[in-house]
Amino acid sequence: MELRILGSIELWTGSSLADIGPARQRSVLGALLVDPERPVPLELLVDRVWGDRPPAGVRNVVHTYITRLRRAFARASAELPEPIGLVRSPAGYVVSADLGAVDLVRFRRLLKSAQRDGLGDQERSTLLQQALHMWRGDALGGMHSDWAARARETLRQLHHEALSQWADAEIRLERPGTVLAELRAALLTDPLSEQICERLMLALYMEGRSVDALEYYQSMRRLIAKELGTDPSRRLQRLYETILRGEAADPAPPRERGGDPHGAGTHQRHAPASAPAPVLSGPVPVVPQMLPLDLPDFTGRERELEVVQRSLTRPTASQPPAVLLIGGGGVGKTALAVRLGHRQQSAFPDGQLYAALRGSGARPADPHAVQGRLLRALGTGPDRIPADPDERAEVYRLALAGRRLLLTLDDAFDDEQVQPLLPGSGDTAVLITSRGRLSTPLGARVLQLAGLPHGHSVRLLAQMLGTERVNREPAAASAIARYCGGLPLALRAAAVRLNSRPHWSLHRYAERLRDEDRRLDELAHSSLSVRASFTASYNALPDDAREALRCLADLTVPEFDAHLACPVLGKDFATVEDACEQLVEAHFLTVAEPAGAGLPTRYRLDGLQRSFAHGLRTDRAGERAKSVQPSV
Questions:
Q1: Measuring CA to CA, which of 246, 466, 483, 603 is 20 to 30 A from 460?
Q2: Using the 8-state DSSP alphabet, how is residue 601 labeled?
Q3: What is the DSSP annotation of 312-329?
Q4: Which residues pair with 430 in a beta bridge?
């Protein structure tokens, strides 16, 4: 049984091609298989397949396609010990199958195996050939959407990475002729790929075809000048000069930790020991340091910092190491990202880029403009930054290629905003923070950021208020931390308010926070406002979810499921469940302990989120009262 997306989207049983329906139905399957380990929410599935032009009644259309795919799976895998299925969980739809049945998964496993330290070139070449043979054309063939085009480009770069590593292994084995046809074909599909051009020039040169190698360089130079208004990389220029002088050139040893990002370079092998290496003069590369100041009182999060650090510094040739930090407003995503960046400066010698994407605000940042700012930070002159979006994106990816950078994209809005800002090679690590409207770009490690534990909350208060003041009233400090619900934004707002009122006791402030109707008013000072942060998330919700949040504040039980909430909202179960799941994604509701098999999910509305919901209910009641007052 094989599920294939490295070419057209197909299901094979043995030597037979199964019928999985029309193009859109196959597209639904393709959207699920790009990252088969992670469930895909319905809304994201619609976006991947139709983009911003879904048909009327698209939910019913998706449900129909899902049902038909399940039937096709049942027919095709009826004789298997573990039939393929398609299941829906609270997080979305996922294909239930052995991951090894998916060609993309097998390809990535082979590529990872080929990158093991200590592997011989012959074994490395064999593994990479097996991986490359899985490709039957453009990935996700027959799927037409903006998301599919972006995913296809990402996968194409992954294919080129494997092809480059195979070419390096074959050239080290002194078999350069075996790779010429594949490299030429790849350069036809991606004529601006210096990574592929470099291998092709090197293979031709080692075959004794120096003139052909130099002609490819000149063609690449003219194309880059025409399309990008710049010159080839210094790396390609060095190889050109090496070939021009007739010196021996060879790929570098297989990629090691922190080594060359493309696994190739130039060095002398057969040339005399005294032969000088080619040296090109040029400007010293700019090393940007764009991170905001680190918080001096940052507290806790050691486990999260360790997970992010390990994920971002783990070497990978197939795609950029990436982490997606998800959490509600005020939970401390930005603070953690900035702390990590400052802590890991030595791991990214080429610098740190930072962009505030303002995804939770009324006007998220334009990625085209952000590209321009980051290019200028990387040393690109304003006259070398194209106005055309596609050209600027190409120049941006070229500027990142081959540089060990950390790119922090803070407060991202959605995939459409993030996608143009992602690197095109595995050199730059990416750290993204978001309130949760993203999928998992680059196959990122996803980390959900919860509130601080109670002990860390008290410790943060002590950092900001002074240990002596907290030690004088430990019970009151503990109560303040509890009322803040582990939310760093709330704790900071409380501390700033107390520091501006040194004559207040902690007990007096805790008593003020005790009043739920006043709590969010108390947790605001200057730009620090829990209510404003929650309001930004609330305004981004669909109407049904907003109405649900207002109504759920009337429930008196600590936990509830969609059945219990139906009478309160006056809606059917499916509508209420969808609204509750949207509130979970927006971090207003939390999921209680997992229910038993077959039982509906149970939710909780408590803490500051409940105070916010009560305030919405009160505000709406006040508006209704005003609307029925007789005019004077």
A1: 603
A2: P
A3: HHS--SSS--EEEEE--T
A4: 322, 407
Q: What is the pLDDT of residues 315-329, one digit of tens each?
A: 665 678 889 999 988
SS3 at position 585: helix
The answer to whether the Cα torsion of 106, 310, 405, 202 is positive or negative is negative
Residues 6 or more apart from 47 whose CB is under 8 A from it?
Answer: 147, 415
Sign, CA dihedral 567-570-574-577, equals negative
* Pairing, β 322-326 against β 429-434: parallel
Q: 299: which 2 tokens? A: 């507290």
The alpha carbon of residue 289 and the mean position of all alpha carbons in its chain are separated, in whole angstroms, by 22
- 87-141 tens-digit pLDDT: 998 889 999 888 889 999 999 999 999 988 888 999 999 999 999 999 988 899 8
Which SS3 state, helix, strand or coil, does residue 138 take? coil
Sheet holding 602-604, edge to edge: 559-561, 602-604, 590-591
3-state secondary structure of 246: coil
Q: Which SS3 state, helix, strand or coil, does residue 602 take? A: strand
Q: Which two tokens stand for residue 194?
A: 């210096």
Helix (H, G, I), strand (E, B) or coil at 577: helix
Q: How far is it, in rounded angstroms, from Cα 116 to Cα 118? A: 6
End-to-end CA, the chain: 77
